[in-house]
Amino acid sequence: MAQGSAGTKDSDRPRVTTRQDGDRLVVQLAGAWTTRSIAGEDATLAALQPNGAGRAEIDLGGVAELDTTGAWLVYRTARGLKQRGLEVDFAGGEKAQLGLIETVARHDTHCPDAPPSANPLVAIVERLGRGTAEIFAEGRDLVNFLGHTIVVFVRSLLRPGSIRGTALISHMEQTGLNALPIVGLISFLIGVVLAYQGADQLARFGAQIFTVNLVGYGVLREMGILLTAIIVAGRSGSAFTAQIGTMKVNEEIDAMRTLGLDPMEVLVMPRVMALVLVLPLLTFYADMMGLFGGAVMATVELDITFFQFARQLHAGVTAWSFWVGLIKAPIFAFIIAMVGCYEGLKVSRSAESVGRQTTKAVVEAIFLVIVLDAVASIIFSELGI
Amino acid sequence: MPETNLIEVTGLRSQFGAQVIHDNLDFGVRRGEVMGLVGGSGSGKSVLLRTVIGLIRPAAGRIEVLGVDMLALSPAEQRAVQRRWGVLFQDGALFSSLTVAQNIEAPMKEHSRLSPALRRDMIDIKLSLAGLPTDAAHKYPSELSGGMRKRAGIARALALDPEILFLDEPTAGLDPIGASKFDELIAGLQRALDLTVVMVTHDLDSLHAICDRVSVLIDKRVKVGTIRELMDQPDPWIQEYFRGPRGRAAEAAASREARPV
After folding, report:
1. Pick from B114, B134, B195: which is nearest to A1 by CB?
2. Is A39 on the interface with B (CB under 8 A)?
3. A65: nearest Cα among A27, A29, A18
4. pTM here?
5. ipTM score
6. Is residue A370 very low, low, confident or very high in pLDDT (cuts 50, 70, 90)?
7. Domain tally for chain B?
8. Within a domain: residue B74?
9. Which of B248, B168, B232, B196 is nearest to B5 (CA)?
């Protein structure tokens, strides 16, 4: 422990002086020997040579402050000199300082070194293999969970009494109503961008009017649903994981099970159902905002009035385009909610894992949504819709 | 023992919104003593501890630690003083992404110029001082038991050789054997390193075993004294606390141990 009162000043930096006195080596220490003040003196003491001396004296008379680090250096020096066959005495130390050196001597242990890190090349291969195996395990578990969710989902639909109304409405509000501003803004802007870029290219062929077709097809078939799904995955999928994950950390899920409540029914179902109900509505809203954005841009840039825009849209874009987009919404919603809940339930009992699983949930949900969207595109084009 | 107070809190007032936790509270800790801090649930023990270590800013009052007026300091100066004490939070509050050794090394790396080899030596010593087995060094906090996590927390609190050690419920959640071992550890460290210890606790056995004096938080103020002095206080809460069935059992256990065999 620090002897003396105030903090370390520059004037009481630790100092080492050695002198030879016959066959006696005198090591004089002075100043503050504390964790905060010690720097290079460590090396000085380590390099100490006995120079043929038979006895050594470590003089602590000038030491103003000594803490465990200082005491350890003194002890280590004494131990080193003893190992070289010298007789070592301490001189001038206060009782407390000598006591501290003794304490440190009693705790002179050596922990095993940290396990060496593997060869980087081997580590990369190992990580690759581990990662691949994990992806397959994760995929299998996810399919397993999908089956479980569908079973509970169908059972809930057959027994509507078991659906938790309050939770359902609350989740619909959080995932749907509260998402309106951000979904609306982004869709509007995407409509603007599509119209602007399309007009630029099509004007070269004098085909500006087909900008309307481009916006209509783009927004209704793909952009509306895809962007909404991605926003919802980032906004609500992550929230599901974090909510359920925190409950897992708090042992609330275990408490639920002991009370005879099924987390699948209480936590997962309201979220899945809420999202399945809400995402088609959000998608419809996003479609409308996207078309509105396109129409605004068309008016400003191409002098196409809203009326002309509507007529061209009616003529050029089939109703199927709209349905193709909307049909995908409940499927994507199911996937997003399921992945969110699944990753939440996989949280282990640490705060760190909540963050990890949340990231995973968002990445997986967006990945699956885009893969499914690609598959749907192929199927619809094969069907000629 | 010289009558210098290492920690001196005067006229402290803490409040959250309209709820007043401490009102005109005085609290002092002498150099080299072990001070216990007790009080009913919600009486503001933890708030007092957190206020002294600078995590909560009080509404009014003066806090002097190691002779420095803490509330008048700039953040940088405050940090310099904070390095002179160590804190053990309830569950150790170890950084979960670092191993035990890295946890202990973190403050050393930040606040000293010790060479890596010397840091390793010091980590070994702190681990041993905290009574941890050597193979715990490279484990992660999640791989340790509650008691070991607390010991690792102590080792980290000792990393910079503090003058004061603050402990928040050090024996909570430990089994009775683990708890009394932990009491011994604290008492041993206090003697060996000449520490001043302030501990919030509910553990009557700890109070009897290692505390020199006890501060009781009642009615937004502190009543301080040795356990024997406090027992003569007429306050019903104190009477209930020290003379209730648990209090008597702990006292009996303490006097049994004190008697020479």
Report:
1. B195
2. yes
3. A29
4. 0.72
5. 0.79
6. very high
7. 2
8. no
9. B196
